[in-house]
From TrEMBL:
Record InterPro entries: Filamin, Filamin/ABP280_repeat-like, Filamin/ABP280_rpt, Ig-like_fold, Ig_E-set
Name of the molecule in the record: Filamin-A-like protein
Homology family: Belongs to the filamin family.
Keywords in alphabetical order: Repeat
Stretches forming Filamin repeats: 3-95
Cross-referenced Gene3D superfamilies: Immunoglobulins (2.60.40.10)
PANTHER family xrefs: FILAMIN-A, JITTERBUG, ISOFORM N
Length: 113
């Protein structure tokens, strides 16, 4: 690793989006890396719902990631820098709140007649 390269374990993420959140409310986290290489940061989420993750850049050149979960439960948020997990990734994020009945999967269908 050259002097200019950053060790992925030195890249950090902070904010409620890598800790916990509430259904229907935006979760956000900031990814801080000394090289400000936002293009080399990839994110994904897996959980009861699959919210879209929106990525932007703050005034300091760090990545800002936002998502809005619609169902409660445990989500796994993965953050990688140059294809390798950053410090703490994957993050287990607990989403609290009520389920939106329109978004719950149908568990059983009974047809009569």
């Amino acid at each position: 690793m050259s002097k200019k390269e950053i060790d992925p374990k030195r890249v950090t993420a902070s904010g409620n989006g890598v800790d916990q959140g509430i259904t229907g409310q935006m979760c956000m986290f900031q990814v801080i890396n000394m090289a400000n290489e936002v293009d080399n940061i990839s994110t994904s989420i897996n959980g009861p719902s699959q919210p879209t993750m929106m990525k932007g850049i703050d005034e300091n050149g760090n990545a800002i990631v936002k998502y809005t979960p619609n169902l409660p439960g445990e989500y796994t948020v993965t953050v990688q820098y140059k294809g390798k997990h950053i410090k703490g990734s994957p993050f287990k994020v607990q989403i609290l709140g009520e389920s939106d009945p329109k978004l719950e999967m149908i568990k059983k269908i009974e047809v009569t007649g």
